[in-house]
Amino acid sequence: MDYRDAFRVALDKVRGEGRYRVFADLKRHRGDFPRATWTRGDGTTAEVVVWCSNDYLGQGQNPVVLDAMQRALEEAGAGSGGTRNISGTTHYHVELERELADLHGKEAALLFTSGYVSNEATLSTLFKILPGLIVFSDALNHNSMISGIRLGPKAQRRVFRHNDLEHLEELLREAPADAPKLIAFESVYSMDGDIADLPATVALAKKYGAMTYLDEVHAVGMYGPRGAGVAERDGVMGEIDIVEGTLGKAFGVMGGYIAADAVIVDAIRSYADGFIFTTSLPPALAAGAAASIRWLKDHNEVRVAHQARAATLKARFAQAGLPVMASASHIVPVLVGDAHHCKLISDILLSDHGVYVQPINYPTVPKGTERLRFTPSPGHTDAMMDDLVAAMEALWVRCNVARMGGIAA
Predict the structure, then answer these.
(1) In this structure, are residues 37 and 26 in contact, taking their beta carbons and an 8 Å threshold?
(2) d(CA 150, CA 153)
(3) Distance, CA of 45 to CA of 317 (rounded, Å)
(4) Active-site option among 106, 181, 249, 343
(5) Are 169 and 120 in contact (CB under 8 A)?
(6) 186: which strand partners?
(7) Cα(183)–Cα(122) distance, rounded to whole angstroms?
(8) Burial call 268-292: b when 16+ CB within 10 Å, e when fewer
């Protein structure tokens, strides 16, 4: 039997649906974000502007962050030496967890190797610690949250319609009053750019005796006076039981974490396989993340500039008649509605206009809602926006994409 045939068939299926992903070979320019050098398949290069990075604030280029990483590399070397339980706990990890706990006003924090791992490991572990736990999950929660929840018993999972608190309350009301409960949701939903009603969700949790688990990965660093997220902005951070975040987006480095009461964090640390059996982050990454968090706590002007840039791009797209989707956050999605057209526009933007933005398609978003997802940063200038909008206007005609709704004609 030639097992490779099955893999070829699987790839042909993805290609046929227009959602085969091609990685762009990019090298960012230190100190010149969002510019980068793109290396084509034939080895030639071109200069491009990156419009889809999750390094939302350009912190991956902040000299304060880079200096901290360089010092840690010189002081401690490259790797951490193992898992946290064996030899992989360094002073850099301890300092970073203290910074994270302080950021969120919690007693403790716990580092993971990525935001995906922190969600999957923590949510799956809660089923071990709370027998009979029922998890109420927003329908548009990230795959990492869904993966963690699916590791629990099927009978103990409830999915409520996206941001539909009436449906959530209906499910809470139907659940046994004495069963432990957890509401798992996000603050900023990264594909549509909408934001959950945190105060109302917290109120429901209190009414029905449920814990709250809030994913703030697309909000930490960017919302609130010190960058602790939407929970800080909306004044409910102290009422969220477990906050989960990432170090790989606005903080510009890598890693994931949770912050909560010390007893919760200690229990997750003691039971979570995704923490116990994984080599810890290199010291340089931990040092860079800590420096980034400290810096952003004191520089709210960067958050203000970031929101202004996002608002400007939304307005520019709307003025040009492009189908920019409604977004209450810094995310600027433009609907295309067809996988083939979405990929075609992305390819032409890169090859002909020096604009790098990846197509977003199934399974990240439902079929028929394919889009381009722009993430303007404080480093994106008016001139860059001029070039982008002009290119988008031209391509919407060239690629035969109807402006009304963005559906391929």
Answers:
(1) yes
(2) 7
(3) 29
(4) 249
(5) no
(6) 215
(7) 14
(8) bbebbebbeebebbbbbbbbbbbbb
Residue 11 corresponds to which tokens in the numbers above?
């790839």
Residue-level pLDDT, tens digit, the chain, 409 residues: 789 999 999 999 999 998 898 899 999 999 999 999 999 999 999 999 999 999 999 999 999 999 999 999 999 999 999 999 999 999 999 999 999 999 999 999 999 999 999 999 999 999 999 999 999 999 999 999 999 999 999 989 999 999 999 999 999 999 999 999 999 999 999 999 999 999 999 999 999 999 999 999 999 999 999 999 999 999 999 999 999 999 999 999 999 999 999 999 999 999 999 999 999 999 999 999 999 999 999 999 999 999 999 999 999 999 999 999 999 999 999 999 999 999 999 999 999 999 999 999 998 899 999 999 999 999 999 999 999 999 999 988 776 654 434 443 3
Sign of CA dihedral 289, 292, 298, 304: negative
What Cα–Cα distance (Å) separates residue 329 from each residue in 74, 164, 212? Answer: 39, 18, 22
Q: Please tell me whether the overall predicted TM-score, pTM, comes out greater than 0.85 for this model.
A: yes
Rounded CA gap, 249 and 73, in Å? 22
Please give the single-letter amino acid code of residue 127: F
Q: Is 207 a catalytic residue?
A: no
CA dist., res. 380 & res. 57, Å (int):
10
The amino acid at 246: T
